[in-house]
Write a structure and sequence with these properties.
two-stranded antiparallel sheet, 17 helices, nucleotide-binding, ATP binding, AS_sf, Glutamyl-tRNA(Gln) amidotransferase subunit A, mitochondrial
Length: 505
Amino acid sequence: MSLLREAEKCIANQTRFLELNAVITPLQSQAGWLQRVRDADARRENGTQKSALDGRIIAIKDNICTRSLPTTCASAMLEKFSSPFDATVISALEESGAIIGSKTNLDEFGMGSHSTNSRFGEVKSSFCGNSGEPLSAGGSSGGSAVAVATGQCYAALGTDTGGSVRLPAAYTGTVGFKPSYGRVSRWGVVAYANSLDTVGIIGQKTSVVREVFGVLNHHDPRDPTSLPTNSRSRISALLSQSQFSNRLASRPLRIGVPLEYNLTELTPSLRKAWLSALKALEKQGHSLHPVSLSSTRHALPAYYILAPAEASSNLAKYDGIRYGTRAAGPDSGEGLNGYLYAKTRGEGFGAEVKRRILLGSFSLSADAMDNYFIQAQRIRRLVQSDFDKVFAFNNPLRTGASGDKDGVSRVDVVIGPTTSSTPPSLSSIQNDSDAMASLNAYVTDVLTVPASLAGLPAISVPVSTTKTDTNPGVDKVGIQIIGQYGDDDLVLDVGEALEQAEITV
């Protein structure tokens, strides 16, 4: 298929699936995109392609800054914002010849697990439940996942703070990859929680995700959290050692099965799909080994202290004076004794964003800092330590890290479910009270948050499942592969191996 026909098909699908509300700003609003596709087609014919992405349409989550299209973060606070620059990931994609497509819908400022907290309305999955009711697309990158699942783009960028790429991928039957923290630049990405935010990639296949990652995986001097060039070289040197080089082809893998991920809340269909995936990899010659990640049971509460704390600091600048849209009319009070921007922040932020700002402000207060924020940071270190203990490859960021742990045999990757259940219906989410809906949404991240706290690479790959306890339209669930820091290529390799495995359910 020519690139032009592929692009036309993407446009047709944007119109066809308009009711799913995956897109905030459509591709057609960008000037000159059609000619760029034609130019890429010409380069493809004469063998001068810029990259594997040349002429491909990449959708962008609407919290990543683009100069040619508005950036709203799905918030009233930024509805009039136009970025004067492109994020680094946008510039990298355009240099590779990719076409920046639609800006996709999300939970406001990336805060949510179902893509229902958007000023532009909820995102609906292309899967349907009983009586044809729409299901959750996951969050917060639900728009990006649905755009990929319905063929509105070749691939899409999202952001993953605690699972916001992997969860939507699991709910929509797509592949969602969160690279190691610092591998991909965050410069130009509207911050939620700086120490956790990671630009992630969603595609129909792991091979597509790998192509996009290859374009984005570079040091960016403008991003202080970007992994430096010398650290990248050091990681490559450690991975080139004989026991780690080309592991999937040279020897069977040792696959860790995390005992703590076998939750009592795990639905039978998901547990069966997990076991089927493990058996399929075992048939390929790999060995399975139970591992304990004991601190992960504390990861979720720690995350929901740390992330809101960072969010409350990051969102403080949106006051309608320096950043953000100012509310019409005077603020509360009059004269010098009035509040300068209370009305602006009250009207500009949605309920969930305000909830997290309050949570974060409390945990950073002088009275609560030691009991909440500091304790959560300690738990984060314990979660990192648990992962370091089970992986054969030493964490290259730790002092003295050098390959294998003195010959002690550990696992190469850890494999578990991405979610504890199949996607809920949107009606069930809407019927919950505000407090209960938020609590249920927070619990949804229980299996994705540990890798985020530790900054590890993780990918969710769709695996076929039975329909005994699931919605009739859902025939795939997400299985998550987690690797040691910097071991992103192995995680992608195992993702491809799982796609190619003969899985019977």
